Amino acid sequence: MASLRMVLEKPWLWSFVGALVVWVATVAFTGGYGAGGMVTAALSLAVFTVIVGVGQMFVITLGPGNVDLSLPANIGLASAVAMKVMGGSDSMILVGLLAALACGAAIGAVNYLLIWALRIPPIIATLSASFIIQSVDISYGRGLQIKPPPGFADFTNWQILGIPLLAMLTVLFTIGAALALQRMIYGRSVLAIGQNIRAAWLAGVSVGRIRFLTYTLCGALGGIDGALLAGYFRGANVDIGNEYLLASIAVVVIGGTSVAGGKANVPGVWGAGLFLVLLLTMLNTFGVSAGVRLVLTGLIIVGVITAAGGERALR
């Protein structure tokens, strides 16, 4: 009873419960074969969703209508920039990562400037920006076949006792994000704006500056994610970030963050990221076709959101 009460009091725990149920179902289907490898693979792939998910979480927490739809294009361009700057040389890894970070941050900053200057909804501004970014990426990355430096590729795939190093570092990053959200002036300002933007302004919160920093942060995380993806998958690709459009939003909502703003949950992003990866693994293991897989994924996500109190979050 105590465990059930804790889950009901913390709806975001449903994301971890969902991940566990999916994993158990898959292990039961395979007769226990590859159970440990499945967890390792899930941790490896969930990392990329968690990184952009945290950025999207901060943006969505700003309040209704705030979302960054340029992330897929951002990731694609940043991956190309990182690979081109690194040029396959281990000595250029740090420079390439900084270039990807700067590229993403610039995109995030421009996104907010479009919202502020043109007075258009974020969904329109970031979607429009994504088309421009994609065009630049196609022109810049066309024919780009530069492999990541050996050291960088090894780093993104390195494991310690079966646990991906990237997953460990991302856990530390998310702990830092949670502390920033709850303990720092910036994080509290984001929550205040999401709860009531006018009240936050009257309380002395620099609304414009906080929103600018948040969109820039989200863009920067998309940029670093693009570089890491290019290292993990051994090369840049225009479409490398496509799956993170809906995934970055899904992990935020499934993880317990309110799309109405003012309420965020960092641990839930991890649970939701693992759930989505393991769900895809389960459906592939069951031999489900691509079309049916998309339908089932959508239905299951809706079910988990409802179980996690999604209706309450949407009010």
UniProtKB/TrEMBL annotation:
<protein>
    <submittedName>
        <fullName>ABC transporter permease</fullName>
    </submittedName>
</protein>
<keyword id="KW-0812">Transmembrane</keyword>
<keyword id="KW-1133">Transmembrane helix</keyword>
<feature type="transmembrane region" description="Helical">
    <location>
        <begin position="244"/>
        <end position="262"/>
    </location>
</feature>
<feature type="transmembrane region" description="Helical">
    <location>
        <begin position="294"/>
        <end position="314"/>
    </location>
</feature>
<feature type="transmembrane region" description="Helical">
    <location>
        <begin position="93"/>
        <end position="115"/>
    </location>
</feature>
<feature type="transmembrane region" description="Helical">
    <location>
        <begin position="122"/>
        <end position="140"/>
    </location>
</feature>
<feature type="transmembrane region" description="Helical">
    <location>
        <begin position="160"/>
        <end position="181"/>
    </location>
</feature>
<feature type="transmembrane region" description="Helical">
    <location>
        <begin position="269"/>
        <end position="288"/>
    </location>
</feature>
<feature type="transmembrane region" description="Helical">
    <location>
        <begin position="12"/>
        <end position="35"/>
    </location>
</feature>
<feature type="transmembrane region" description="Helical">
    <location>
        <begin position="41"/>
        <end position="62"/>
    </location>
</feature>
<dbReference type="InterPro" id="IPR001851">
    <property type="entry name" value="ABC_transp_permease"/>
</dbReference>
<feature type="transmembrane region" description="Helical">
    <location>
        <begin position="212"/>
        <end position="232"/>
    </location>
</feature>
<keyword id="KW-0472">Membrane</keyword>
<dbReference type="Pfam" id="PF02653">
    <property type="entry name" value="BPD_transp_2"/>
</dbReference>
<keyword id="KW-1003">Cell membrane</keyword>
